């Protein structure tokens, strides 16, 4: 007597179906004319029929996997034309990543243009991940522009001509970077780069009409070439990382990186970089105390050629170049040093950050609807950072009669913020920071994209 229970009656409102050449059929029903030409073959038929034998392994051929590169990712190309009061021009760019089936080899190509062809952005790199020793070799060109001077010449009560001097650096680099993992958490990194930097000064002028609030056509008066820089920079680093990430950043573990790089060429200097971070769980892992100590020091005759800037939202919050041009700063009493953004620049920097992170919103759905809230984390933070160069003295507190040309001291800030996970595509950072060592102590909002440190 068959004791198999009868199948439960099927709910006609909820059932799975297959779509084939003959239309729709229930998933638990085999197709008609099984085995006939053009008919489907189910897994049940393969298991129940002895006519379908397993492949003959003696006919298998072993060979080296060729790993041909095929497109894996293509960025949507952009081509456009822009025109405003400051000029006009074309722009565009795209990127493509080629890889083999198992990801052992990868080739990335990218290019972009925003004006002149000689100022185009170009990047090409080949990466090999097939062995324990992994490496990347490539070339790139990257233009960079710096404002080094400006002036305003009145020509009437409502019109003036503004002149600007812009330094243009076009860096061309061939690089080789490799890494060798010791285990899952530690690795050595080493490599080198060959660099050529073309330097020039662009003299730009345009008219300003204060009565109507617009500018006239921008003119590039001249481009004066300066001497090029050529140097080779080998480096080596030791890296450790065992952190566990949450929705918006690390929540537990440690990570650190110690690196040394030496540049040899027209100018020579040595970079010493140290970055130590830890994430400690508090209150039953509900809170995370995140701390970071970071320093980058360039030492040598050419250390001031590429100064470092700490007034960024991911380093020292509350201090930004634009804050030093406010009306409050212009009328601040005392030393003019507190109103100089130059104290954010130096060949040597040291930064410390402390954050207390906690969840505010966690993903959940409202019933059976498709509405889902984004993960949101809150934080309280305190920052401190100092930038200095050779010949400048550094003290822990603000010196009397402070002069930023010869003296530097740590700038401090505190505040609160939020981190929002945008559909696992990007992290939105919102911070309100209160600078303690600026002319104005009012808070500033910073909106940036990127994970927490």
Describe the protein in words.
With 453 residues, the protein is mainly beta. It is built from 2 helices and 26 strands. The protein has a 20-stranded antiparallel sheet that branches. Strands 1-2 form a two-stranded antiparallel sheet. The chain has a two-stranded antiparallel sheet with strand order 18-19. A hairpin with a 5-residue loop joins strand 7 and strand 8. The longest helix has 6 residues, at 43-48. 13% of the residues are buried.
Describe this protein with a few key phrases.
mainly beta, 20-stranded antiparallel β-sheet, 2 helices
Run of helices and strands: EEHEEEEEEEEEEEEEEEEHEEEEEEEE
**Strand element count:** 26
| Structural shape | globular
Mean of residue pLDDT? 83
Quickly describe the structure.
The chain has 453 residues and is an all-beta fold. The chain has helices spanning 43-48, 327-330; strands spanning 17-20, 23-26, 70-74, 78-84, 87-99, 105-114, 121-128, 134-154, 159-181, 186-209, 214-215, 219-225, 229-241, 244-245, 250-265, 269-282, 287-299, 308-309, 345-346, 348-361, 376-388, 393-394, 407-408, 411-422, 426-435, 444-449.
What topology does this entry show?
Elements: E1 17-20, E2 23-26, H1 43-48, E3 70-74, E4 78-84, E5 87-99, E6 105-114, E7 121-128, E8 134-154, E9 159-181, E10 186-209, E11 214-215, E12 219-225, E13 229-241, E14 244-245, E15 250-265, E16 269-282, E17 287-299, E18 308-309, H2 327-330, E19 345-346, E20 348-361, E21 376-388, E22 393-394, E23 407-408, E24 411-422, E25 426-435, E26 444-449
Parallel strand pairs: 22-23
Antiparallel strand pairs: 1-2, 3-5, 4-5, 5-6, 6-7, 7-8, 8-9, 9-10, 10-11, 10-12, 10-13, 13-15, 14-15, 15-16, 16-17, 17-20, 18-19, 20-21, 21-24, 24-25, 25-26
């Amino acid at each position: 007597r068959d004791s198999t229970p009868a199948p439960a009656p099927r709910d006609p409102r909820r059932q799975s179906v297959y779509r084939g050449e003959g239309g729709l059929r229930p998933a638990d029903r085999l197709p008609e004319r099984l085995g006939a030409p053009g008919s489907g073959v189910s897994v049940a038929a393969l298991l129940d029929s002895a006519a379908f034998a397993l492949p003959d392994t003696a006919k298998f051929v072993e060979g080296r996997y060729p790993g041909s590169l095929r497109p894996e990712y293509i960025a949507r190309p952009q081509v456009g034309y822009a025109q405003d009061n400051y000029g006009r021009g074309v722009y565009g760019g795209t990127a493509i990543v080629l890889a083999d089936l198992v990801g052992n080899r990868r080739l990335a190509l990218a290019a972009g243009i925003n004006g002149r062809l000689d100022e185009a952005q170009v990047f090409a790199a080949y990466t090999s991940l097939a062995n324990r020793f992994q490496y990347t070799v490539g070339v790139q060109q990257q233009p960079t522009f710096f404002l080094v001077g400006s002036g305003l010449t009145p020509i009437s009560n409502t019109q003036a001509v503004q002149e600007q001097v812009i330094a243009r650096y076009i860096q061309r680099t061939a690089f080789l970077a490799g890494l060798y993992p010791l285990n899952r958490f530690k690795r050595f990194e080493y490599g080198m780069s060959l660099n050529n930097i073309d330097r020039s000064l662009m003299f730009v002028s345009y008219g300003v009409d204060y009565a109507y609030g617009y500018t006239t056509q921008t003119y590039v008066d001249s481009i004066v070439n300066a001497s090029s820089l050529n140097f080779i920079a080998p480096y080596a680093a030791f890296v450790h990382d065992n952190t566990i990430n949450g929705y918006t950043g690390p929540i537990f573990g440690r990570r650190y990186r110690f690196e040394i790089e030496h540049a040899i060429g027209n100018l020579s200097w040595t970079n010493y970089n140290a970055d130590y971070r830890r994430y400690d769980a508090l209150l039953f892992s509900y809170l995370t105390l995140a701390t970071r100590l970071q320093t980058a020091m360039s030492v040598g005759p050419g250390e001031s050629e590429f100064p470092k800037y700490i007034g960024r939202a991911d380093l020292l919050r509350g201090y930004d170049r634009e804050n030093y041009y406010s009306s409050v700063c212009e009328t601040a009493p005392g030393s003019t040093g507190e109103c100089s953004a130059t104290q954010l620049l130096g060949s040597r920097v040291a930064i410390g950050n402390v954050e207390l992170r906690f969840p505010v919103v966690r993903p959940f759905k409202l019933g059976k609807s498709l509405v889902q809230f984004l993960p949101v984390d809150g934080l309280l933070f305190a920052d401190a950072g100092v930038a200095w160069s050779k010949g400048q003295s550094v003290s822990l507190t603000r010196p009397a009669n402070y002069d930023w040309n010869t003296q530097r001291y740590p700038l401090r800030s505190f505040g609160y913020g939020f981190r929002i996970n945008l559909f696992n595509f990007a992290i939105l950072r919102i911070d309100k920071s209160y600078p303690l060592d600026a002319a104005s102590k009012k808070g500033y909002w910073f909106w940036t994209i990127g994970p927490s440190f």
